[in-house]
Amino acid sequence: MKASAALGVFVVGLAVLMVGVAAEFNVALLAVGALLMLGAVASTMRQRRTGPAPDVTVRPGGEGRPWRRDR
Fold first, then answer.
1. Residues ≥6 apart with Cβ < 8 Å to 26
2. At 65, is the secondary structure helix, strand, or coil?
3. I need a labelling partner for 62 at 20 to 30 A (CA). Which of 8, 43, 44, 49 fits?
4. How far apart (Å, rounded) are the C-alpha atoms in residues 3 and 1?
């Protein structure tokens, strides 16, 4: 799900939640709104990268870094 679609679902869930609050805390509307919001957030939290993890080191140089060769 794209971020704009997830935002739209989240806003609809928030609106349903507010209607549930305005309707004297209607539990069914509160539950539907909360589930829509939770689903929108959960759909955007998955890891987007595919493939191997990048080779990252904290050291300032090393043999595996050709741009840091001795001159």
1. 19, 20
2. coil
3. 49
4. 7
What distance lies between CA 51 and its chain's CA centroid?
Answer: 19
pLDDT band per the 50, 70, 90 thresholds, residue 47? low
d(CA 63, CA 45): 36
Q: What integer is the mean pLDDT of 16-44?
A: 93
Amino acid type, 24: E
Distance CA 1, CA 45 (A): 11
> For the chain, how many helices (H) and strands (E)?
2, 0
Residues 6+ apart with CB under 8 A from 28: 20
